[in-house]
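Appendix B. Chain record.
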Amino acid sequence: MATTETRWLSAEEQQAWRSFLTATQTLFSTLEAQLQQCAGIPHGYYEILVRLSEAPGRAMRMSQLAEVSTSSKSRLSHAVARLEERGWIRRSECPTDRRGQVAELTDEGFAALAAAAPGHVEQVRRSLIDALAPEQVIQLRQISEAIMASAGACAAVLGEPPVSLCQSDDGDE
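Structure tokens predicted for this chain:
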């Protein structure tokens, strides 16, 4: 079995990692709390509504919606069921593939999204955008894109398995 030496984080890298981790957890907790308090929905549901609102005809195949909202198919199915109960999404059979389903944002769902969006955007602005200089916003996008590429997010969206860093006991890597 090939072994590689662990590349431990330097003190500076460790501080950067911990700051990033705390910042993202704090940001997501704040956004989640705002959406729950003001709109009565979790951030994941909001993201589904946004993705459908931006899709042609406000509709998308469930498998595609799972990919763009970075949800597992089972988690998405559960969320869509809850949103269907509210009358915000309607599911139908896919006209081109009988095995697939299409999720469509209803007028009621669009109205709920339109009502939730101003408060959510204000919270994003207050918690993130306004804390940064304009050049830092550009850097944040570049850093985020580099992280997504490195973490295999692009491969996952394309349906490719992430690269494994675990070593097996039988000598395979």
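Further analysis of this model is presented in Appendix C.
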